[in-house]
Fold this sequence. Notes:
single chain, Hypothetical protein af1432, two-stranded antiparallel sheet, 61% helix, mainly alpha, 2 domains
Amino acid sequence: MSVEPRVSLLDMVSCLSSALDLVSPAVVNHQKRTAFIATCLAEEMGLPLQEQVAVMTAGLLHDCGALSLQSKLDALCFDADQEDMHTHCEVGAVFLGKMEQRFPGMAQLGLTDLVRFHHVNWDEGRGEEMAGRPVSPASHLIHLADRVEVLIQRGVEPLGQVPGIVRRVFQERDRLFLPEQVEAFASLAGREFFWLALIYPEFLEDTLVEKSAAGPLVQLDLPGIVNLAQIFAEIVDFRSRFTATHSSGVAVVAKLLAEKAGFSEVESRLMSVAGYLHDLGKLAVPREILEKPGPLTTAEFNVMKAHPFHAYRLLTPIRQLEMVAPWVSHHHETLDGQGYPFHLAAKDICLGARILTVSDIFTALTEDRPYRLGLPLDEAVSVLESMVKDGKLDGLAVSLLAGNRAEFNDMRQMVQAKAVCGYADIQPYSK
Length: 431
């Protein structure tokens, strides 16, 4: 592949939004539903198009700072503790700030502060600022949309819930919510379409795409895709100190291996994207499993084994990443057919997936984990070579790594040291 792909920023943001809500059935599509509600409210109030797009995008990512399952579940309580809520808002602002630094078009939307303040109560006007900083009405709009979403009982016919939801929102008018936004919600709540649309994920996504199409379409070039994939990796990895630098290590090793294997420059850079995204599906794995200091139970390992499949269904719809999707989806397949989740035969595992598998295992072996310290370099390579003899790993990929082990390990250590600095930004908020 010599032509550089270009991917819609909305497609990538939507992918991450879906991934973030994998951790529990209780939060599936929470962010997309919140984005839909917020966008409908913004349209009802006649807000400018750019502000509608900003509200929608921030809604899709508003809980990206909720790094643990418990923090996500806590946020589903309508009267959740404000201090705890502001914690995940601050972490989310860190991640959004990084996106804005790398994508000037996003900075114009002001997403960082929209997410940072999306749980500030209106409090009869005192919520116009927090800690001496102004809080925009758009943040309050996302707050209202988020609280409306958590009031909707899943699996229960929605239209019969409307009077109770409207009544509860009006009870909090001027305390939690801006009065004029509550009025807009009351008008919107009278339309059956609004509630029925929230039931069907496919329709919900199509509606968000349609609404976003009216605004400026931001296209990411290959460097932009790599940059955004790196931020995705941080959101995945920073949930645990044991995985905080893992994907950054995999990405650089995979790119170097691809270059040594004769991949083109574009393909090699896409391999780094695959390295950053290879554990995207682990957002469905609770941190308690990631940090368990001993062997996983069968049930826990079943949860872990699902993560490549989640990545498969998240990335496959993004047509421009059709090369990356199988690399990511198959990185736990082995040549003897005993890998997971597809149990592919060797002939069905492409070289890119084989390279990513070797990169992932090498990086994991050399890192500290809850149950062991990282292995010395030569010992890690010996483990890989034994897996080749057992018919599990690709001999070419392992031989290329073994022959360049010092170079690969030095690069791994260098990029992971940088990743530690990024983890330090959110560590004070991690719990």
